[in-house]
Design a protein that fits this description.
single chain, Endonuclease Iii, domain 2, 15 helices, 3-stranded antiparallel beta sheet, globular, 3 domains, 299 residues, Endonuclease III, domain 1, 3 strands
């Protein structure tokens, strides 16, 4: 029989995690005093499904070249796609450029601090809007990412893994733990994400190092296996249309001149897959046909 975890004692979770974070949190650019709201927004775009180690150097390059939304808005969208390089999911570069244009035109070049105004920007979802409002402007909101959801699932619900994302449910679960003070709430938001990234990891969690191990419902229950619904597993990258799209984009980034069908044909052996990939890039606005059989990055 699977052990059932007793209700977790949640009162001490936030202060314990916040204290641990202040002593053990990584020194990352977006956590430093004086880091701009624009820098925070750029970092959140880059961090979506991309490891921190890959983001930090690209973020620094990006902000040196485009230190404000106005600076990015002044260049063609294709330059943003070119600078995105190997970060992956390049539509984020298009959305970030579009958001920079919107910030410039609607907000006088200043990143808004209101969640609804942030949500109205291209490419900004609920997590990113709340993250900017909290970490750049000190607003009090629950911020929920994959790491947050995993820590709460284990410590509070006694489950090895979180159920598939549910916006209302996830925000309510985090709101229940959130300190009243805005400064403490921001630190806890960052701290629980950090705990999930460094200690309460998906595989082989380091429970002996966890600051809330004594109140963790999953640990108390004897680490039962997860038996609930799971989110869909993403298909492998190798050999996928995503990989072929990446090859074509790399070719487009490598030159400021149009790339021809003949050049693209040499990138991959499967002509049908190349065709699908190019069709997708054109539909997404990541490539533009300048004339039949000739393509560039968007203007």
């Amino acid at each position: 029989m699977t052990a059932i975890a007793p209700p977790a004692d949640t009162a001490g979770i936030a202060p314990a995690i916040t204290a641990w974070f202040r002593a053990n949190g990584r020194d990352l650019p977006w956590r430093r005093d004086g880091f701009s709201a624009w820098g925070t927004l750029v970092s959140e775009f880059m961090l979506q499904q991309t490891p921190v180690s890959r983001v930090v150097p690209r973020l620094e390059e990006w902000l040196e070249r485009w230190p404000t939304p106005v600076a990015l808005a002044a260049v063609p969208a294709g330059e943003a796609v070119r600078a995105w390089a190997s970060l992956g999911y390049p539509r984020r570069a298009l959305w970030l450029h579009a958001a920079a244009v919107e910030i410039t035109e609607r907000h006088g070049g200043v990143v808004p601090e209101d969640v609804d105004a942030l949500l109205a920007l291209s490419g900004v979802g609920d997590y990113t809007a709340r993250a900017v409002a909290v970490f750049a402007y000190g607003r009090r909101h629950p911020v929920v990412d994959t790491n947050t959801r995993r820590v709460i699932a284990r410590a509070v619900a006694g489950q090895a893994d979180p159920a598939p994302p549910g916006r209302v449910r996830d925000l309510e679960a985090m709101s229940t733990l959130l300190p009243v003070d805005a400064t403490e709430a921001a630190a806890f938001n960052a701290g629980i994400m950090e705990l999930g990234a460094l200690v309460c990891v998906a595989r082989n969690p380091r429970c002996a190092e966890c600051p809330i191990r004594n109140v963790c419902a999953w640990r108390t229950a004897g680490y039962p296996a997860y038996s609930g619904p799971r989110k869909k597993v993403q298909k492998k990258y190798a050999g996928s249309d995503r990989q072929v799209r990446g090859l074509i984009l790399a070719e487009l980034r490598s030159t400021h001149h149009p790339v021809t069908d003949l050049e693209i044909a040499g990138l991959w052996q499967d002509a049908a897959q190349l065709g699908r990939a190019m069709t997708g890039l054109l539909a997404d606005g990541l490539a533009v046909m300048v004339e039949p059989g000739s393509y560039t990055l968007p203007d």
